[in-house]
Amino acid sequence: MKKARFLYLHPDVNVGKIAALDALQAKYAAYLDVCVATMLDARRFKVALREKQDFFPECSELSSQIVKNVRDHAIGMVSGWAASKYTVKLRAYIKRLYHDRCIDERTRSALCILGKRLVDAPSGKVTQDDLDLYWSWLLDPDVVGRTPTVSSRCGMRMSEMTAVLDQSEETALTPWWLGFSHLDAGKRRIQVPLTSNPYVSQTSQVSKGVLARKDKRGRWRFEVVEKAEWLVPEPDEDEPRIAIDVGLNCMVATSTGMLLGTSMKPKFDRLYRKARDLRANRQRQGLKDNSPKLDRLEAKLSGMIKTMAGECTNKLVAWYPGHMFVHEDLDLRGCRGQKRFAYRAVHHALASKTQTMAVNPAYTSQSCPSCGYVSRNNRSGTKFKCRSCGRLAHADAVGGKNLLGRSEDNQVLACDDVSEVRSVLRERWRQRRNSSLGLRPALEPSSPDPYCGGTSNGRRTGSNLGPTQSACSFL
Question: Where are the alpha helices (H) located in 226-372, listed in sequence order?
Answer without folding.
Answer: 264-284, 292-319, 337-351
